[in-house]
Amino acid sequence: MTQAAGTVPPPDDDASGAIVSLYQTQRKIYPRSVTGWFVRWRWALAFATQVLYYGLPWLQWNDRQAVLFDLSSRRFYIFDLVLYPQDFIYLTVLLVISAYALFLFTAVAGRLWCGYACPQTVYTEIFLWVERRIEGDRAARMRLDGGVWTLDKILRKTAKHGAWLLIALWTGFTLVGYFTPIQSLWAQALTLDFGPWEWFWVLFYGFATYGNAGWMREQVCKYMCPYARFQSAMFDKDTLIISYDAARGDPRGARGRRADPKALGLGDCIDCGLCVQVCPTGIDIRKGLQYECIGCAACVDVCNGVMDKMGYARGLVRYATQNSMAQGWSSRQMWSRVFRPRVLVYSAVLVLICAGLAISLWWRDPFKVDVVRDRGTLARLVEDGRVENGYRIQIMNATEHAQRYRITASGLQNAQVVGRSELDLGPAEARWVPLAVQIPPEVVAAVGPGAHSLTFDIERLAGTGQASAKVAERSTFVIPR
């Protein structure tokens, strides 16, 4: 029987049950716990960063929070520093320093930031530690997830996620504590009396921490973090990376501890697979450099432990460069190439920028001034033929001491400030001061009509807790025709 034109042929019986998915199913990774020198370093850095992050908002300095970014009053306190939005250049310099530091560390030893200090790595390690304490090590967790739901499984899962949520919410609370005084924020937390923005950021950052560190884990590093994609632009063949010594380890194969690998025609790798089991991103380092590797060195620690048990030399998996592995260099030869011109240039630039930032902060003016002309009345004629211009001057006290200031004008002969020429400001206070400047008729006749340069000299008077200082701010004085 022939098929009518335009009709759809019936499905083939053999192909009707085949379903093709456009998405790859993600295999859950169960990292095995490991001990070793690099693991201790990772935990030491994790402890240091978290003590700093969670503890810094509670530190008091000059009867206030030591580090506080008070957006409502536009004051940023960092120990003795009081910064204003006009000091945004310092944030720019800090970002440049961070970028150069990332370039330097990556050129020297790859993804050191990712493996040891990145918040994603740190919080994933913390969440994994909680998971191991509640559900057990790798094999126990795999059995628990593969088993049926029992009361024990429900209790363990509830306890784990409850602990994760507490850590995540405390992390979000601490973040908000850098922008809202944390002691008052804690008092609000006891009664759940947060404002709308506090609620939003505590829950948003807490949810992000819970989702990224508890559920997504390695997927953030592999698919979401852009650094994994462009790191190759900062690598070269003299960059230290986690490397498997194939010349020494292959051919791989199992054997007893007392067996002679040479007699069996085998290398030092016993093909135990532990380097894969401890990897937080689930890769096999024996396949060479892969963008998923975050440089945590867990495989180095576990392989060294295996080598110790087998009585072989350590370093089958180690930090090494591609050139040193290919050419069989000694450690001295390898390190001589690690500190190459590219690294030295990065280091020199980084030192210069840091020194410039330190010097700039040290010589920074103790107060800031902004001058705005009165747009309502540019110029007017007053008594005795004098010409007057109106201004608004903002003075920002960048210290935590009460200060007294005097305002004078220069640049035009006999220019006289009319209004409040002296004022007192409290610690870290900013105030707008309306005033006028007048010049006599003989000066008006001498300089003629038009816009003329005028300088405001704002002097911090001595005897107010610190030495005298002066800031000059340029403006213009308009003489009408």
Mean pLDDT across the residues is 87
| Structural class by sheet pairing and helices | alpha+beta
User: Strand percentage, roughly?
Assistant: 15-25%
Taking the sheet with the most strands, its summary is: 5 strands, antiparallel
Cα radius of gyration in angstroms: 33 Å
Work out the count of structural domains.
Answer: 2
- Shape by Cα distribution: elongated
Notes on the structure:
It is a single chain. The strands form five sheets. Strands 8, 9, 10, 12 and 14 form a five-stranded antiparallel β-sheet that branches. Strands 13-11-15-16 form a four-stranded antiparallel β-sheet, with no helix packed on it. Strands 3-4-5 form a three-stranded antiparallel β-sheet, with no helix packed on it. The protein is elongated, with a radius of gyration of 33 Å. It has 18 helices and 16 strands. Helix 4 crosses helix 8 (196-216). Helices cover 43% and strands 19% of the residues. The model is unreliable at 1-8 (pLDDT under 50). It folds into two domains: 25-364, no CATH class; 367-479, Immunoglobulins (Immunoglobulin-like). The protein is of the alpha+beta class and 481 residues long.
Question: TL;DR?
Answer:
Helix content is 43%, strand content 19%. With 481 residues, it is of the alpha+beta class. It folds into two domains: 25-364, no CATH class; 367-479, Immunoglobulin-like (Sandwich), CATH 2.60.40.10.
Features:
481 residues; alpha+beta; Immunoglobulin-like; five-stranded antiparallel sheet; four-stranded antiparallel sheet; 16 strands; 19% strand
